[in-house]
Amino acid sequence: MTPTVSIIMGSTSDMPVMSQAAEFLNMMEVPFEINALSAHRVPERVMEFAKSAAGRGIKVIIAGAGGAAHLPGVIAAYTPVPVIGVPIKSSNSIDGWDSILSILQMPSGIPVATMALDGAKNAAIFAVEILALADNGLMDKMVDFKAELAKKIDKANKDLKEIKYEFKTN
Predict the structure, then answer these.
(1) What is the Cα–Cα distance from 32 to 14, expressed in whole angstroms?
(2) DSSP assignment, residue 107?
(3) Which helix (H) or strand (E) holds 31?
């Protein structure tokens, strides 16, 4: 099985967040790989990974990083593959803002789609949406997934109708 999505993180301490992406991709039956790479500790490996990604069949890269969070941007600089950045609130983070801004504020020509702080699940959903553009089976799974989200809201509204207040009108 050849991976089509690559999940990359700065260190294994990011795995509790990035596992959300792995779980969603696994649920959607999308082949993926997971690796740790550091833009600061092994920059040459990051460059090699990014340059080889497209040739290995990788269609989307999800890169999570905390602190200075340069990993998604460095990868995006070396690959034509779409990169989705996940800012991670790490132990050395300034409430996550350093990570958010490091990933969000990319220069023109080097885009990184930036998710919310610790938003690895949304990164995986976005990756699957990208892949689904060329895969009808995956598109059907995404349609079903979105329909399940709507069902949850319908159930929530049904449950809310049962809550009684003197001046509640619905």
Answers:
(1) 17
(2) P
(3) none
